[in-house]
Amino acid sequence: MTAYGLAHLRTASTHADVLEYLRRIDATLAPFGGRFLVHGGNVEVLEGTWPGHLVIIEFPDLPTARAWYDSSDYQEIKPFRTRHIAGDVILADGVEPDHSSAELAASLARQSA
To answer: Which of 7, 46, 66, 89 is most solvent-facing, going by the fewest CB within 10 Å?
Structure first.
């Protein structure tokens, strides 16, 4: 099942370390089939607040996403970002192509009955 790495980066910086991180991150993703779906850019806030930037990276599955994050190549460049940009990073499973919120609601209702 497809998985995603999501980052909510609350501060922006053009520090030399951040630029180095940006130059090198693509090479860390390639061996794991990772690709950017969203990388900064504008967001339209419809509810609540959203200070910062959004990054979404797609991976073939959660174990592969975790392997990328834990890889020595990514761990080597990660401090270039974390020393200069505050944010939250998570990994999340996607859903199957036939996912249905209505079926999920029915299942949850049965479980709570």
So the answer is: 46
Q: What global pTM score does this model have?
A: 0.91
User: How far, in Å, CA of 72 to CA of 78, rounded?
Assistant: 10
Burial class for 51, CB neighbours closer than 10 Å (0-12, 13-18, 19+): exposed
Segments forming the whole domain that contains residue 46 = 3-112
**CATH assignment at residue 20:** 3.30.70.100
What is the Cα 88 distance to its own chain's centre? 9
Rounded Cα–Cα distance for residues 88 and 58 (Å): 17
d(CA 20, CA 106): 48
pLDDT tens for 8-65 read 999 888 899 999 999 999 999 999 999 999 999 889 999 999 999 999 999 999 999 9
DSSP 84: T
Q: Which amino acid is at 31?
A: P
Q: Are 91 and 69 in contact (CB under 8 A)?
A: yes
